[in-house]
Each structure stands twice: as C-alpha cells, then as structure tokens.
Specification:
The protein is mainly alpha-helical and about 325 residues long. It folds into two domains: about 200 residues, Orthogonal Bundle (MetI-like fold), CATH 1.10.3720.10; about 30 residues, no CATH class. The protein is about 65% helix and about 5% strand. It is built from twelve helices and three strands; from the N terminus they run H-H-H-H-H-H-H-H-H-H-H-H-E-E-E. Strands 1-2-3 form a three-stranded antiparallel beta sheet, covered by helices on one side. A hairpin with an 8-residue loop joins strand 2 and strand 3. Helix 7 packs across helix 8.
Amino acid sequence: MKLTPSSHLWRGLLALVLFLTFFPFIFMVMTSLKDTHQFFHTFWLPAFPLHLENYANAFRDLSRFIWNSLLVTGVSITGILFFSAVAGFLFARYDFPGRSVLYYGIIMMMMIPGVLMLVPSFVWVKKLGLLDTYWVMVLPYVAGGQILGIYLLRGFFSEIDNDLFEAAQVDGAGLLRQLWHVAIPLAKPVLGVVAIVSALGVWNGFLWPLVTTSSEDVMVLTVGMMRYNSRVFGMYGRMFAGYTISAIPLGILFAFSTRLFMKGITSGALKAGTAPAARARPAPRQPGRYASRFHVYLPGVDVMIVITKRIKVGS
C-alpha cells in the first residue's frame, strides 16, 4: 500500500507522542545508572561506565518498605476479592428484605471522596489502637475497595443463566457451593479486573499510610520513599534507582495481567450464561421420542449434572 504524505505525517506525530510518553521512564532508568558527576555533566544522555551498584544500595535501603507494601497489598486484595464475591453473589442471587436499599447504600459510598473520611477514619482506628500496625492499612483498604468489586460482580452474577444454579441445587449444592463451583469460575475475568484495579490503588496509596504509620517496621514503599529521598539527597543515581525499583512490581503486574484485564473489561458485553465453561450441549433427538436431557459441565465439579425436560419432537 502506497503511503501518502498525510499518512507519513500521522505516523510521525504518533511516533512523537509515543516518545514523549515513554521518555520519563527512559530518563529515570538512564539516570539511575549514573553517579553524581555524570548526572550534572551528561544530564540528557547516557553515560559510561554504568553504576549498577546504585540498584544494590537502593534495594538494601528499600527492602523493608517493599516487603511491607507486598504484604499489605496481598492481604488487602485477598480480602477485597473474598468479600466482594460473597456480597455480590448474595445481592444477585439471594432475596432478603432491604436488599435493594442496602445495595444502593453501599454503592453511594463510591460518590464520597476519600479525603472527607480521612479524619473520622483516623479517629476510629486510633480508638481501636490500630495505629502503626499492618491492620490500620489493610482493614480500610478492604472496606473501601470491596465497593467496586460488589458493583461489578453483582452485575455479572445477575446475568448468569439461572438454570446453572438450579442444576447445582439438583446435585445438592448449597449457596456457598454454588458460588464456589458455578459463579466464581465464570467470573474469573471480572475478579481479575477487581484485583488489578485494587492492587494499583493499594500499592500507590500514600495519604492514609502517611497519617497512620510512623514506624519503619510497618511503613509501606510510598511513604518510605520520602525518608529514602532525604537520606540519599544529592546522590541522584541511587535516588532514581529507588524510583525504578518501586515501579518494577506494577510493571510485572501489568505485563502478566493485561490479557486478563482486557478479557474482564469486555466480558460485560457477553451474557455470562453463555460462557464456554458453562455452555449447554443438547442430546441427540430421535423422531417419535422425547429428547429429554442436556448436559451442563461445571468447572470444578467432578460430576456431570443432568437436567431433564420432557419435550416432544418429531413423529
């Protein structure tokens, strides 16, 4: 295909936008490999020799903060996924008095800016004696993060064909087993979206850990970087090496979860009951007989559930 001058112009503009987008990260990595002399004399360009010891020193200084962030993020995401799945399933499949009022009351919490709850939340955790502990970060993150999960999962679970749950009931599955063996396998892409969005929020959280923690034993990376910058002030290579190290976990998360994230975003356009894992397969029909069964294969269930419907076919 022959390229016109306008197409060359658009390609050049896109290349420029791409370069401007990635240049801050390139500059950060490039500066992390310099010493102070190289930083001032070759500010915009790479410099040799490369100083890899900056990363060793930065990791030694930040290792405690990194571990704290990984711990808080992992525990928070586990709690968010668990409570979001259970609450979303109950709101979608279980009828109880006040269900709609309670659901919309929870969703209304998304409209309240978090900064407005900062002082009341601080007084609350102080009265509970949770300051300078992991729980002072985990519990509020779980309480606030599950609202988005409840909203997404409730909508997804509501779209699952009710025949799947009736088939599980015929097999003797209770409410929790229906959640674990029917709903959860179908909702994995949506759970992935909830996990990724929540992980970004917890990992990058700064204001709440800043006002509730002062001990480096429980301090997370975003707050620990402030103290680290004051310690290595003037040593820009070590400072930017710390920035690069702090960005690596989110880069790994993005690299391994992009496909799952896109699948979860687009899964809302499809009816959950038609997902491949729960697709119904009709039994062969014969003239003059009843085609009475079709099979439903449920992921995680070691038995085949047979649903019988008497349908007259042919003569």
